[in-house]
Amino acid sequence: MLPVSEETKDKLRKATDVAKTVVHWGFLPLVIYLGMTTGEPRPSLLT
């Protein structure tokens, strides 16, 4: 196995943290958006 530097480990850790945050905060809005754009009948936000 190749040796990995501490700098590389830190960058991977930061990238993983960012990805977790994006998935955590973006999953439910994505599901709602997809449901509202592809669902029949289309729900109305105004009524």
UniProtKB/TrEMBL annotation:
A single GO cellular-component term on record? mitochondrial outer membrane translocase complex
Where is this protein chiefly located? mitochondrion
Query: What keywords would UniProt list here?
Result: Membrane, Mitochondrion, Mitochondrion outer membrane, Protein transport, Transmembrane, Transmembrane helix, Transport
Q: Is the keyword Cell inner membrane in the record?
A: no
Q: In which compartments does the protein localize?
A: Mitochondrion outer membrane
How does the record classify its membrane topology?
A: Single-pass membrane protein
Q: Which GO terms describe its biological process?
A: protein import into mitochondrial matrix; protein insertion into mitochondrial outer membrane
Membrane found in the keyword field: yes
The entry sums up its family as follows: Belongs to the Tom7 family.
Spell out the PANTHER family in the cross-references: MITOCHONDRIAL IMPORT RECEPTOR SUBUNIT TOM7 (PTHR34944:SF2)
Q: What is this protein called?
A: Uncharacterized protein
